[in-house]
Amino acid sequence: MERVTVTTVPTTPSASMPRLTGGASVSVDGITVGEWTLTRAAFTDRHQHVEINTVLEGELHVTSEGDTHIVRPGQTIVVPAGSRATYAAPEYARMSYVYGPGTPGMTDVAYEEF
């Protein structure tokens, strides 16, 4: 078993993405678990691993492969590895996430505010 790695995503918004925040995440054996929020904004990216998001508060609109899904508290959405997805919160959304094993990092990143 790999050593467990605990990291903290900045909890204060960055200048380039002021309405996206995150908290501590934990990684072990290539699987990462964490939490993030999005407020009146949309974030787009592509991961080389499966991405699982469970909405804890608010409402998240996820568009991937041409389909849009509205995810509400207690609901979970799975985005397949290699897919480009847009995560939009018309007002506010707080999510937990699980990234499956795969190549770390993301590409095709975009951000916009509403």
UniProtKB/TrEMBL annotation:
It comes from the Bacteria. Residues 1-13 have a biased composition (Low complexity). Pfam families: EutQ. Transmembrane segments: none annotated. Residues 1-20 are annotated as: Disordered. Signal peptide: none annotated. This is Cupin domain-containing protein. It comes from Sporichthya brevicatena.
